[in-house]
Amino acid sequence: MASRTSSLYVEKEFVNHADLAQLSIRHEAQFDDLREDLKGITQRLDRLLDSRKPT
User: CA nearest 32: which of 24, 43, 20, 44?
Assistant: First the structure.
């Protein structure tokens, strides 16, 4: 019985680690997308500010 219980625990932990790895990959991709969005926003703001500077 103990062997079966420890086997189930190991299987569950493996699944949890695999799920966490997938979640980590997904979050990393979302973070990369947000970073790119922020770059675009920053560039647009810089252009807007430059266009309003008195010459």
Answer: 24
Read off the DSSP letter of residue 53: S
Summarised one tens digit per residue, pLDDT across range 9-46 is 667 776 778 888 888 899 999 999 999 999 999 999 99
Q: Computed from CA positions of residues 34, 37, 41, 42, in that sequence, does the dihedral angle turn out positive or negative?
A: positive
**Is residue 55 classed as helix, strand or coil in its secondary structure?**
coil
The owner of tokens 């997308």 is 33
- Give just the sign of the alpha carbon dihedral 43, 46, 48, 51: negative
Taking the whole predicted model, whether its pTM rises above 0.85 is answered as no
Distance CA 49, CA 55 (A): 12
Q: Which helix (H) or strand (E) is 4 found in, with range?
A: helix 2-52
